[in-house]
Design a protein that fits this description.
This protein is an alpha+beta fold. The chain is 65% helix and 11% strand. The longest helix has 63 residues, at 229-291. The radius of gyration is 52 Å and the shape is elongated. The N and C termini lie far apart (159 Å).
């Protein structure tokens, strides 16, 4: 009899453990005490669907206490099964409600499923965030390089969080505006005297359109003077022009040398032909004697002319005496 009673007690304990595992009775009491209407059957079905009932119930209690009547159990379950963060969504809805920010449940879940931290976005809407740009290098029209750093105060744009560009795009657009503003300045001194012109230009362009943030202000934190890019470019251009001129001069020199060598070769060829012709002259004269075309008197006249020519050359070019 005692053994049977012990077995009955053990079976009862096992049944109660299984019951309280699948039917979170104390969680149901907590929900009822907090004013959240939910049945034990719904909690049991959550356990069957592998949805953490504690997370859903806590979220319902928080939403109910904050006066959010449009948050239902089915919506929270669906968002959890879709891979969303139920707790952050409810935290964001409560914070938005207290801050009078228009944020509905569908928008909050869409932002959360898009991979953004919806609770942090609501916090940024209430408390704007300051992001600092990296060193932005630009050159004014006078050729002086300036290096600027800006601090951008942004506020999350709730309606643009889904599909809107992030912080990197905002920083890139602000950097582009800084480069444009400095590049359009006549002198770097104008930029140093009025750095607020950069902020006005960037804000006037509306660089926050299409992004998940709204630019509230742009403050130039620091501007440093860099290199004289204009002078460096002029030096480089002058060096390039010099190299080009030297190359062209070398080309003309090479062509002149080649032409001189060609003329020398032609002169040597002509002298060789003259020497060859002079070598043929005695033979031609002998043949003329034999054929009777050249007489003795003609020969002497030619010798006299040759002697006279040599004498004139010696007079014109006297030999230099060496001591």
């Amino acid at each position: 009899m005692e053994v049977t009673l012990i077995l009955v007690l053990i079976a009862a304990i096992i049944v109660l453990c299984i019951f309280f595992y699948y039917v979170p009775f104390f969680l149901w009491i907590s929900a009822r005490v907090s004013g959240v209407r939910i049945s034990l059957m719904q909690l049991f079905l959550m356990r069957i669907r592998q949805v953490p009932a504690s997370v859903i119930v806590r979220a319902l209690i928080e939403a109910h206490k904050a006066g959010l009547n449009d948050v239902s159990r089915d919506d929270l379950e669906a968002h959890y099964l879709a891979g969303g963060n139920v707790e952050k969504v409810v935290h964001a809805l409560v914070s938005a409600s207290k801050a009078n920010i228009d944020l509905g449940f569908k928008m909050a879940t869409a932002i959360d499923l898009a991979g953004r931290d919806v609770f942090q976005a609501v916090q940024m809407s209430v408390n704007p965030k300051v992001i600092e740009t990296p060193h932005v290098t630009a050159v004014a029209k006078d050729g002086i390089q300036l290096i600027a750093i800006a601090r951008v105060t942004v506020r999350a744009n709730i309606r643009q969080l889904v599909g809107g560009a992030g912080e990197d795009t905002v920083l890139a657009r602000v950097g582009e505006g800084i480069v444009s503003s400095i590049g359009s300045s006549e002198s770097h001194k104008q930029v140093l005297e009025n750095p607020d012109n950069i902020s006005k230009l960037v804000l006037r362009k509306g660089l926050d359109s299409g992004t998940a943030f709204e630019i509230l202000s742009i403050d130039i934190a620091d501007i440093d003077i860099g290199k004289n890019i204009g002078a460096a470019l002029q030096i480089d251009q002058a060096q390039a022009d010099k190299n080009i001129a030297q190359a062209k001069a070398e080309e003309r020199r090479a062509m002149a040398i080649a032409l001189e060598q060609e003329m020398k070769a032609k002169a040597q060829e002509a002298r060789a032909k003259v020497i060859e012709a002079e070598a043929e002259l005695p033979r031609a004269m002998a043949q003329a004697f034999i054929n009777g075309n050249l007489g003795i008197m003609d020969y002497y006249k030619m010798k006299n002319i040759e002697s006279d020519t040599n004498m004139r050359q010696n007079i014109a070019n006297p030999p230099t005496s060496t001591k």
